[in-house]
Hints:
This protein has 3 helices and 2 strands. It has helices at about 20-30, 35-40, 45-55, and strands at about 10-15, 40-45. It has a two-stranded parallel sheet with strand order 1-2.
Amino acid sequence: MTHSQHPRPxxxxxxxxPGGVGPEMMAKLLALESNRLAADLLLTADPVPWRDAERxxxxxxxxxxxxxx
Length: 69
């Protein structure tokens, strides 16, 4: 099977309650390149709490505008 027959899935990711553990867990999961390569991901999060979650998790993802797939 070729890539065109099995394209990567497109997933919208929501980190959850900014005061909970979800955002930090999501930041750690998205920091792993293998996870980012498994699907086209759209992170839907408020930037301020998301940056706080990245700081707590010790990660930083480059921001990218959606590609319009």
